[in-house]
Specification:
Layout (H helix, E strand, L loop, with lengths): L9 E4 L1 H4 L5 H14 L7 E4 L48 H9 L3 E7 L2 E2 H6 L10 H4 E6 L6 E4 L6 H15 L3 E5 L9 H14 L5 E4 L9 H7 L2 E3 L8 H14 L8 E3 L7 E2 L7 E2 L4 H14 L3 E3 L8 H7 L2 H4 L5 E8 L3 E7 L6 E7 L5 E3 L10 E4 L4 E4 L4 E3 L4 E6 L8
Parallel strand pairs: 1-2, 1-13, 2-3, 3-7, 7-8, 8-9, 9-10
Antiparallel strand pairs: 4-6, 5-6, 11-12, 14-15, 15-16, 16-21, 17-20, 18-19, 18-21
Helix pairs in contact: 6-7, 9-10
Length: about 425
Amino acid sequence: MKTMLSKPPMGWNSYDYYDTTVNEEQVRANAEYMAEHLKEYGWEYIVVDIAWYSYEAGEQRDRFQYVPFAKVEMDEYSRLLPCVERFPSSAGGKGFQPLAEYVHSLGLKFGIHIMRGIPRQAAYLRTAIKNSTHRANEIANPYSICYWNPDMYGVEPKAEGAQEYYDSLLELYAQWGVDFIKCDDICRMDAHSSKAEIVMLHKAIEKCGREIVLSLSPGPAIVEENDFYQENANMWRITDDFWDNWKSLRDMFDRCRNWQDFVTDGGYPDCDMLPLGFLGKGFGNERETNFTPDEQKTMLTLWCIFKSPLMLGAELTKLDSETLARITNRGVLHLLEAEGAGECFRDDSFIVWNAKEKGTGSDYLAIFNIAEKELSVQPDRFLQLEGKALDVWAGNTCNFAEKQTIPAHGVVLLKVEKKEGKNE
């Protein structure tokens, strides 16, 4: 059985701000901020993203995002370890265990990014595989490569020692105390072995004796493979990397509509990270998000009503009070526990989603203005309800039939309490 979740994971991931360069001190600082300011609202995962094993991450950034054939830290069993220079507590073969223990001491959960397959360095050196007489070069497929990252070869699923390799990875991660794995170069099944490697990874998680959430990247995930994703993973990306521009956000409405019927408890199509606050330092261009405050509310509302996992990409210690208030709005976050969400209206000006509050049956109505100008609209045009409504973002009440003025690229989110004998 896969790890079961009652709601989508919520947390922080180092990628949007640090790219490949995050270090232990920075991870600890963001974890401390989350524990103090965000944990009570449900934010709990701290995820170290790509290239934590590389000694040359971030070097030659004008030429490479991932330095070809860079020096990496690796053990005798072909398993990547944290770069000791960037994660000093990992020295002496401790790996991420000390950092995970610190994150856990804050009442949070710890996660890492991994790439599909086995390190190319392991194949070149023909290093051992734990609990197998076979070696890395015997299970590596040199023709199964990621076209954007040079660190790994895919694993040949039928090779003896292949499952043992994945089992040994998860044995190590369980020893470290890992709660979350984001596996990359696997979700959209670019390689012939991707599907089989997902299965091997899932089997290894089942054997490791620890509950670990499995996230698959990058997208777009294949809708026709929904049952397969549901069986083997907890979340899967429905888009490639998502960044802070309106065109990408507008596109997410189409992607969410395509996947809205496939969201289940414990199985979540993933809209990718929330590019809020300060971003881009590791890319050499530290900046504030390009999303306007209204676009930020639109993004958060869509992600929540769709029940996407929520992963913050900002440097948390630099969040301003307005952004902090948006990501800790309990009424909006409560949408993650709603039921039956889906798009109920669309034209050139508005996209409208509705859902029911779990337990009470109260109605949510999210009206998104996708136009380039402010527009006014009456909510009962989309849902035949009456009485008082809570404006969830504003925190005040209004008449549901009352005309709403919505800024360009903005949203109004209304909640109408169910009355006995009504709305059946």
